[in-house]
Amino acid sequence: MQLFKNLEELRGWRGQQSGRVVLVPTMGNLHEGHLKLVDLAKLHGDQVVVSIFINPLQFGANEDLDSYPRTLEADCQALAERGADAVFAPQVSDVYPRGLHAQTFIEVPGISELLCGASRPGHFRGVATIVAKLFNMVQPQVAIFGEKDYQQLQVIRLMTLDLSLPVDIIGMPTERAEDGLALSSRNGYLSTSERALAPALYATLQQLANAVGAGTLAPDIAVAEARQQLADKGFRVDYLELRRQQDLQPATPEDTELVVLAAAFLGRTRLIDNLTFTRNY
Ligand code: PAF
Questions:
Q1: So where does ATP get bound (predicted)?
Q2: How far is the CA of 194 from the centre of ligand 1 (A)?
């Protein structure tokens, strides 16, 4: 496996590739969920490039940019064992040569302001900008993203469509621990007691999806109950919302392809999760 620490090295290698290149964008601190993205990537092309870049543009002023775990060596070892072909781990100055504040950015309107976008202003602008830049740098034919960040995936799909980027976007179902907790780099911040509580987030989403999917509870009541259940267990709910899948606007009675999305704090750790389902009645 090759490691490229700057754009020039990456471009030199990319110019020699004739097959299909698949990109797996990450911020490092890799866990099994990321490695499953690599497994899927291998099925979609000839060369798998994993980018590892902690993107300052998508972190808010009070977020965990400084403390975000930086584990390049262990990440590269895991990726080599998993059969990735190349890692692209550029410096901030390479990615943002004119500085963060001068950077041209990409904003996907509407969807970027909802849900996580409301709690994290500017976050999806940072995500859309870095993903478009990574597409230009790596020039993949395919890119793989986890469905755990469902809103991010939809923002990237819309950006790719709006900018006519020649990249197929593939979503990968969320990888979970045995007790249902979605794998995330931020799970490492949870204390032992918080970790024991954390699976309740997904369990609550499942209950809601079952009830709304089968029509046994009205959506408004199911959402209110789910929020209350999480609060009773000790979560501080940032949002828990039932939306239609495509653009994440509030679901109307006519919408059948639905997603329930939640962000909730346990202590200082913000967990997110979601579940897509079809309303059958
Ligand atoms: O999901 C992530 O890890 C990041 O948001 C991404 C897509 C790599 C962009 O920095």
A1: 27-34, 146-149, 183-186
A2: 25
